[in-house]
Write a structure and sequence with these properties.
330 residues; Rossmann fold; alpha/beta
Length: 330
Amino acid sequence: MKSLYNILIIGSSADVVNKITNWLKKDMAITTAKDLIEAKDLLQKKHWNLVITDINLENSNVLEITKMVKISSPFTPVLIITANQKIDFILAALEFHADALVFRPLEKNKLVETVYRLVDEAKPSREKQNVILAIGAHPDDVEIGCGGSLVLHQLNQDSIHILTLSLGERGGDPQLRKIEAEQAARELNANLYLYNLMDTQISNTSVTINYIEKVIKEVNPTHIYTHSLHDSHQDHRNVHHATLVAARKVKNIYCYASPSSTVNFKPNLFIDIKSVLERKLEIIALYKSQSVSKPYLSSELVCATAAFWGRYINYSMAEAMEVIRQQQIS
């Protein structure tokens, strides 16, 4: 039987994990994180229907963990297991947006009832949440093309995912670019899917399509941002073609501009990013290995580009998109 819910347990001892797993094994997939570092990694990799945190987690404040979960995924409920029944702790937990507390010693019926209540109550919120997938051929493509739009989605508490299909080894040290991409994703509270197709040789064949389809199947996006066809870089054009095949059932698809866009790039949507332009610049600046040799990463040129497209929305600052499909206003 396929598990209906993904549950992440942070910091519990093996006996507590085993007990919870046995109680919930019917339709719950349980994953454990032994410490805060592992928890942060797991929170970025997938959606969780529920996070259970344990007060016994060493060297970490359970309320800080709750805050971390809510920043990463605002609609994910958090259940705290604790023996602390003092009113000041309970009030602090509620202030940090914990959704429920279960006190030790654990009682099966109480825990199971609380878990199912939390995952069921979270469903309506998740159904209203936009799920954003931004696709790029190389590290920094997404941030340059639609970084401001992604910040706006972040402020809207949308679920953000970034798919980067190569490590961009022709443009620099691939491991360094990987680290930079991970840093940028963290700034956007985004889940990063990073593949290792060969830079400058990304195809629009089944290999690329399958990678994109795999992520689409996992995250079920409501909106996709990807490369435009009108681009002089072959990787960008091929990612565009592959995306349209893989995303044939996605309702909202937008194509962003890149430094290699051609004069045939003709946008028909202009997204006002004036309020978040500084955030976009900060995120792009994380790609330090590229900024030295790539003039298009300079803040002056990024701002000039935003000002150019902003002419079409009463001289604000904008990102420009070619709309492939739009059935829901983002």
